Fold this protein.
Amino acid sequence: MILDQSLNKILIIDFGSQFTQLIARRIRELGVFSEIISHKKIKNKNIDISIKGIILSGGPLNVYEINRYSFDKEILKNNIPILGICFGHQILSKLNGGKVKQSKHREFGLANVYKKKDSLLIKNFFNQKKIHKVWMSHADQVSKLPKNFRVIASSQNSKFAIVEDKTNKFYGVQFHPEVTHTENGKKIIKNFIFLICKIKKNWSSKDQKMKLIKEVRNQVGENKVICALSGGVDSSVVAQLLNKAIGKKLYCIFVNTGLLRKNEEKQVVDTFKKRLKMNLIYVNAEKEFLKKLTNVSDPERKRKIIGNLFIKIFERYAKKIKNVKFLAQGTLYPDLIESRSVTGSQTSKIKSHHNVGGLPKKMKLKLVEPLKFLFKDEVRNLGLELNLNKEIISRHPFPGPGLAIRMPGIITKEKINILKEADYYFIQGLKEHGLYNKIWQAYAALLPVKTVGVMGDNRTYEYLCLLRAITSEDGMTADFYEFKKSFSQMISNKIVNSIRGINRVVYDITSKPPSTIELE
Ligand code: XMP
């Protein structure tokens, strides 16, 4: 059970919808804490006074399965307002004595809903109009309303598109107010949490900062904490939060694998050691990594070697700091949500991502995971609140194995140097043309083929550079970014003219899936 009892909240009971996280984010954007828990895990005994409202999410289950899902019906008897969304709306009706059936007409995409009656839930939602565009995604629907319910709005195919039981404060919507396609959908969520649940705002970066600092202090007391700092957003925010909370009891270890971006080690040391005055141990392990990777070209072997060596080095240095009791990690909320297994998605292992997960058990360390209730955008805002600069906060993600997985084939120092330069010119170009923040992730890769070119009057025979730039929400799916011809031309010229070793540039136009974001 991962419910945080220290803050009032809106609880989202997840039935496996792909939009559940979006519901939580919308509520938090409105300044209120929200938590997600699987319908299989929540029991009535877990409902405490911090829960001021409950949302039942949508889900992939159908009308035939509705009798088989597990859900503790006692939860409905706590006198807490409940909003059911899509499948959640169907369940709420069913549990209160209504009926659900398969619709004759399935509704996917935009639909019009027509207002029938006033309700707090739809205050300022319809504005002057009586018709409103919403986003539907369902095959089943409520066919008979429970006794105390009445219809607030209908669509052509769903008579019970918005319903309420005013006495019990139960509400149901057949559409998805959390997606941006539903015009003004946030208003429904806003009305539910503020007008119906009457919860007060309690969730800003400043609130989070104070709360988390206090919690870290309580958890670690006078003990020492170690943290692997990579310079990425999550580990930077964790490190700075702990720095503020426990100062010199925090020991950050930054391992230079030699596979970092150009000047990255200097930036990390300058920021954390010089500017933020952190206890930073800088380990230059470039040679050790390169040696272990000699003649290795298999992607999974590369990843394993790097992951294992990283842990070994980290452990070596951590042992030198005596009496360490805790390891701080930048685990985020999406990694933690228990209900992920409900949807069954994204669980197959495509690549072995490396982290320091093996350490706590081996070294008998306890984990400090202060970001475990935060989404990525919240971590970024918290970072700004903690005085980290924008450049660190808005940095594109960078994989643990670094440039090694952007260099198919064997890894050499010469190739690393060429790649660092190409990546640097590409990223600089994006920044100078105001494109960096429009792109979720961008990088240069060096392919293990040489092709023929001509420069001046001379034949060249050099490496092929691949550029990748994608847009994405969370890295799970991605699309390539479409550059203007003038930008592509400028970057290609810059790379080929400035870097000895590259004479051709190609752009990766595959989406994920079927490709992945990294090459290996
Ligand atoms: P893929 O290539 O799996 O990448 O589509 C999805 C996102 O994950 C990042 N990535 C990693 N991050 N350690 C990390 O910390 C890793 O081993 C790793 N491999 C991929 C990748 O950069 C992208 O943002």
